[in-house]
Amino acid sequence: MATGFWWDGVEYHRSEREARRRAGMNARFHDPQVKWDGLWAFAAGVTVFPVTALPVLGVAGGLGLAVDGRTVIGILIVVLAVVAAPFAWRVFRPVAERFLGPNAGSRLGRRVRELETIQADLTQTQAAELERIERGLHDGAQARLVAMGMSMQAAERMVDTDPETAKVILAEARASSKAALAELRSLVRGINPPILVERGLVDAVRALALDVPVEVVVHADVPSRPERPVESAIYFAVAELLANVAKHAHAGHVTADLAYTGNALVATVTDDGVGGIPATPAGSGLAGIARRMAAFGGSLEVDSPAGGPTRATVSVPCVL
Amino acid sequence: MRVVIAEDLFLLRDGLVRLVQAYGHEVAAAVDSGPAALEALLKERPDVAIVDVRLPPTFSDEGLQAALAARREIPGLPVLILSQHVEQLYARELLADEHGGVGYQLKDRVLDADDFMDGLTRVANGGTALDPAVVAKLLGRPRRADPLAALTDRERQVLALMAEGISNTAIAARLFLSEGAISKYTTSIFAKLNLLPDDDTNRRVRAVLTYLGASAGGDDG
To answer: CB of B26 within 8 Å of any CB in chain A?
Structure first.
């Protein structure tokens, strides 16, 4: 026994059957896309149909005249109609472009869904980043500082009674502070590489090229410094691409190109290694790069036939 | 010797001033920004300067730029650059003018006061004091045909210390070997790498670094 109400997508109904019927009706007649398609049928009826019908009528009329006895004029009209036929269809294109395909609302809906996915990805990436930083601080520098504090306290107690041991403990504390510095340095490098702050993208990529264990030639043609987030996104993408090359490609010649195309910043990493990277490797580092690029409205393209060469391009739209 | 110090963090600047004074040197100026550093370097013409890479007002590489600019005005003006991170790129830029009197070290090295002051003195005397981390990166650079492969482990160790700018005597002390043994190693290293043997530390460092491809300005093709 049904005690509640049934929802059809717009309003509630007493019975399930009624709700289902209404939902079906809504889907059939109230879908904005259905209206849009109806509009196309009407518009095509009054524009495309009459114009494209003209040549057909011409052929029929011309044949009629020819049979009637006015052969020359009849044949002329038939020929004219056949020649004109392709031109008559030109009316189709502008009308179709206007009325076929998703309407503005559907397009917007699709874009909203895309953006929702990107936002979810971003939120997740950010949370993971924060967690990594927190763990790095918690297990690294923080723990070392605690150890240092304890060592110094012990040294303080011993400095009068056992100065030799106190010295040893203090030396340990100093070593601890060095280790903490080293850990902080590598953490900072992962968050925002200092050279990127100091020199900008081009020199940062040059420094990167010097640090990876393969020889990389850098070409750069970027008129000015892009926005910091764009810079950082491209930097980390190039860093990961170069690391991949060093790890997997067995390449002899590697180039990294940075260029500004007028509306996008484009970085290309090319190597003559083994190639054969699948176009959409789900779950790999490349998928991560693609996601991050998407967040900036950019993209990652990988062209890697088996046997090489491999060319990976990241681009982010921006104004310089 | 007379020292100019450019460092924006008060505690570190103060610490450096005290450290330098504790070793019996005179601090000619202690400044906290890029423009002030350049001015002090040109006006004081110190025996050596300690300059932080990142300084106000822009907190980019102002300190490094000030040092490079001062060295263009006064070739060979000894500078020791301090940074929270070391980059081969900066080392190359500093060494590019081939005048010597260059140091480039992590700030952590200040914690080993003796070593740090040793390096500072070396730089003041026209020598070189490169951070072991930079040298490790330079030695780790890939080369198509790697002649370093011909070196023994001990020879590599000696080469790394030479690249930092350390003299034979000091290398001997560090590795607990006799000076004679070290000069045997260096002769063998120079022979294996086809370099001219040299006793002058600075020219020696330059030879090694040129060999490692470090004094080229950049690799832009």
So the answer is: no
**In chain A, beta strands by DSSP E:** 6-7, 12-13, 216-221, 254-260, 264-271, 299-303, 310-317
* Residue B118 CA to its chain's centroid (Å): 11
Phi/psi of residue B38, nearest 5 degrees: -60, -45
In chain B, where the domains are located: 2-130, 137-211
The mean per-residue pLDDT over the stretch B4-12 comes to 93
Residue of A nearest to B134 (CA): A211
Question: What is the spatial distance between Cα B152 and Cα A196, in angstroms, rounded to a whole number?
Answer: 37
Over residues A195-227, the pLDDT tens digits come to: 998 999 999 999 999 888 888 999 999 999 998
Q: Which CATH class is domain B2-130?
A: alpha beta
What class, spelled out in words, does domain B137-211 have in CATH? mainly alpha
Topology of the domain covering A195-317? Heat Shock Protein 90 (3.30.565)
Written as one letter, the residue type at B146 is D
B170: alpha, beta or left? (left if phi > 0; alpha if psi -120 to 50): alpha
| Residue A48 burial (CB count, 10 A) | 19
Interface contact flag, A198 B54, Cβ < 8 Å = yes
pTM over 0.95: no
Helical pair A163-191 and A104-136, crossing angle rounded to 10 deg: 170
Q: Do A194 and B141 touch (CB under 8 A)?
A: no
CB spacing of A210 vs B85 below 8 angstroms: no
Any A CB within 8 A of B187 CB? no
Q: What is the DSSP string of B76-108?
A: T--EEEEESS--HHHHHHHHTT----EEEEEGG
How far is Cα B134 from Cα A215, in angstroms, rounded to an integer?
17
User: Per residue in B131-150, pLDDT tens?
Assistant: 998 888 888 776 656 677 78
Question: Which ipTM was obtained for this model?
Answer: 0.80
Contact status of A152 with chain B (Cβ, < 8 Å):
no
SS3 for B153? helix
Tell me the mean pLDDT in the region A96-111.
Answer: 80
Distance CA A216, CA A23 (A): 62
Closest CA to B80 of A143, A309, B60, B90: B90
Q: Is B140 on the interface with A (CB under 8 A)?
A: yes
pLDDT digit string (tens) for A7-62? 887 888 888 888 899 888 888 777 777 777 888 888 888 888 888 888 888 888 88
Query: Using alpha carbons only, what angle is made at residue A65 by residues A60 and A68, rounded to the nearest 5 degrees?
Result: 125
